[in-house]
Amino acid sequence: MSTHEVFTDRLQAGVLLLPTMVVSLLFLYYPTVRAIGLSFYQASLARGDVFVGLENYRRLAGSTEYLRSVLLSVLFATCVVVGVMAVALCVSFLIHEIEVGKGLYLVAVIWPYALPPAVAGLVFLFIAHPNIGIFTSYIEALGIDVNWFSNGPQAFVVVLIAAVWKQIGYNVIFMTAALGNVPESLTETAELDGVSRTQRLLRVYVPIISPTLVFLVIMNTIYGFFGTFAMVDLMTKGGPAGATNILIYDLYRTAFQFYEFGFASAKSVVLFVAVGLLMYGQFRLSDRYAYYGG
Predict the structure, then answer these.
(1) pTM for this model (two decimals)
(2) Cis-peptide into 240, omega within 30 deg
(3) Buried b or exposed e, range 88-101, using 16+ CB within 10 angstroms
(4) Which compartments does it reside in (predicted)?
């Protein structure tokens, strides 16, 4: 069979796509439709499903605890995106500038991303543990009392640092690849003009790699809202006093601790719609600020 026939055979294309479609239907589309339908019911293990219409959404609209979780999640995701992008951009630029040992530096930066989120959470838990943490004594030597098991702001900061640390490697992979595609002539011209490294990064490289940066902003936003559940669960369990009770963990507690599956489904629908609208807005902004050449 020729190459032309391989790409024009609809039956063969359908067979190749079938496993992906089956997995998507079973584990993506069906749960989505099921969650939307279940959000209109008061569902529990004891009483079964009772249709309540929009009551679950009314409860969400009038819940101060849920509003607090929403604001906390927005703050957390924003800090994650800004922190990851800033640190990864600086690290990627430094790796791009060196000539010797670049591969070793890349491996050192990327390896936390290779860890499963649960493992990364456990590693950081022991690193920053208030009693046995490696860095705890150094921080307390500065006169700072480390007790994030009972201090809400400290717990928020510790989980935030862990989330940023876990995601830096993912961003560095894309940023170093994008920086590697910057024409060498631009770098040489900037050096001849006496442009400092900081100005070269911000005024020359960043505009050129802006499509990659926009993509990473979107992926980091999704990560900030959905990808940090394991860290919160293992490190703080949403505490202390709800200081790290972000939406994805609040949804989990509603469903699997309080067994209010209908209410949890309504929370999942609201979270999905909110993040979807945020993604749409970021895509629209990318058309205005990202440089695609031409």
Answers:
(1) 0.89
(2) yes
(3) bbebbbebbeeeee
(4) Cell inner membrane; Cell membrane
